Amino acid sequence: MRRRGFIAGATALCAAPALGVRGQAGDAGGDLLEAARALAARPHEAHRAPLPAPFADLDYDAYRGIRPRRGQAAHLAIGPGYEVDLLPPGLYFPDPVGIEIPEGDGGGFREVAFSPELFSFEPRYFDDVPDTAPGAGFSGLRLRHPLGDARVMDEVLVVQGASYFRAIGRAMVYGLSARAVALGTGRPEPEEFPRFTRLRVHRPDADGAARIEGVIDSPALAGHLEMTLRPGAATRMRIAVTLIPRRDIADAGVAPLTSMYLKGPMRAAVSDDFRPRVHDSDLLFIRNGAGESLWRPIANPARTEISSFLDDGPVSFGLFQTPRRYAAFEDTEARYHDRPSAIVRPAGDWGRGAVVLVEIPTDTEFMDNIVAFWRPERPLAAGREYRFDYDLIWTRSAPEVAPRRAILQSRSGREHDRPGTRRFVIDLAGPPEGLSPEVSARGGTEISGLAIVPLPGGRGTRVTFLMTPED
Q1: What is the rounded distance in angstroms from the CA atom of residue 353 to the CA atom of residue 390?
Q2: Cβ neighbours of residue 224 under 8 Å, at least 6 residues apart?
Q3: Reduced to 3 states, what is the DSSP secondary structure of residue 62?
């Protein structure tokens, strides 16, 4: 999974394979859920035509040199308080996406016809730009809305690459992403990446919410996503995803979140880097159906690790960026301390299943190596229709926990006088009174040296222990 992201508000990137077909021209305004149902009833039709010039064979810098022209593909007004930018193909985005925007005030839509003339091309990378580019199309869109100054149309959402999208709120920069569905994530076989074939941007609602629909397609399924978005200090979404499998699917991931973790206090030696932390998220936090709050620090493992947290009727789960001080990262460009957390809150009862965390080794910050999602207990059956409704919140806030206890930080390191042994340290809010830790491990691992000590100045309590694996 290639990390998607240009720093400081540039266009999002994704190297995920893009499969499927675009929507048919001329059917703008039809029911997109019905279009997804019709698509699922047919065999999947793979389509990947080579990109024509000037969009073919671009490197990173050349792709950044293609910019939507204002009033043609950029800052297109779609209603009070909102504008949309249409994004070019190239680099990691070869497959066309049909994009519909509101037409007039009558509630209709028009599909925007693609043309190279909608974009400007940096002369240092492009000599001669043809007037047409047969087979090329838009790769996605960017939504704008004022987050502070009403005169500034800030970026709030990017939808680009497979079925990926990501959003920010006030005083944030892009970090982790979400997507419509994950298929086969963490399995030995190659992961399948459903993609958006059509996107429809609606005129904003009377109460100021933006609405976007998309049709999803891949060999295993077709589907439909509807997103209602309310930007602000935290940007809130209500999402409805309908999945219609073409075959039985046992490894579907619902409401997937994708992030990056290179290094931090839990495993700092993984990267020889001047920065103390390099990550978009450092914590998986779950509120399960039994009323428990589960904290799972994220790591960059030596080999792929898959953790499943069984549940019945999950309340919420999310990937959090918990440090919010510049000093935690010391990065003036990437601004990791300003990257959002994302929380999934199911609407209705999702039944039995598990929150799954996949951690993949990486030696670079340009690879997304963390995925978290909900996996239903029962496989999705071919020919049936499954709908999942949930809220998705992009925020700077810390996890909501009972006031008596919160985890302040987690650290680990080798015990120098005991080869093969690591010391773990967990700092908790509050005094040591009433704490009774239970520490367990599998596979013959020895746990020793458990201690509970108050932190200086009443800053909390430290729980520490040693772990010596049998192997």
Answers
A1: 16
A2: 32, 33, 35, 36, 213, 214, 215, 216, 241, 242
A3: helix
Q: How far apart are CA 262 and CA 5, in angstroms?
A: 15
User: Per residue in 67-86, pLDDT tens?
Assistant: 999 999 999 999 999 999 99
Pairing between β-strand 177-179 and β-strand 252-259 as defined by DSSP bridges: antiparallel
User: What's the burial of 212, exposed, middle or buried (CB within 10 Å: 0-12/13-18/19+)?
Assistant: buried
Q: Which residue has the higher pLDDT, 282 or 402?
A: 282
87 vs 93: CA distance, rounded Å: 10
Confidence of residue 62 (pLDDT cuts 50, 70, 90): very high
Distances in Å between the Cα of 173 and the Cα atoms of 96, 116, 142, 152 are: 27, 29, 14, 16
Residue 47: its pLDDT value, please? Answer: 72
Q: Which two tokens stand for residue 219?
A: 């060999």
Contact 314, 350 (CB under 8 A): yes
State how far the Cα of 370 lies from the Cα of 204, in Å rounded to an integer.
Answer: 33
* Nearest of 419, 393, 385, 290 to residue 341 by alpha carbon: 393
Q: Measuring CA to CA, which residue among 248, 253, 280 is closest to residue 264?
A: 280
pLDDT at 270: 87
Start-to-end CA distance of the chain, whole Å, equals 30
CA 203, 204, 207, 210 torsion-angle sign: positive
Positive or negative: CA dihedral 340, 91, 333, 361 = positive
Contact 215, 36 (CB under 8 A): yes
What is the pTM for the complete model shown? 0.89
Helix or strand holding residue 217 (H, E): strand 210-217
- pLDDT at residue number 443: 83
CA 198/CA 234 separation, integer angstroms: 27
- Please say whether the beta carbons of 300 and 267 come within 8 A: yes
Q: What is the pLDDT of residues 189-216, one digit of tens each?
A: 999 999 999 999 999 999 999 999 999 9
The two structure tokens encoding residue 177: 């992403």
pLDDT average, residue stretch 407-430: 91
Tell me the per-residue pLDDT of 420-438, one tens digit each, with 9 for 90 and over: 999 999 999 999 998 989 9
Tokens describing residue 428 = 């908790």
Q: What's the CA gap between 237 and 226, in Å, rounded?
A: 10
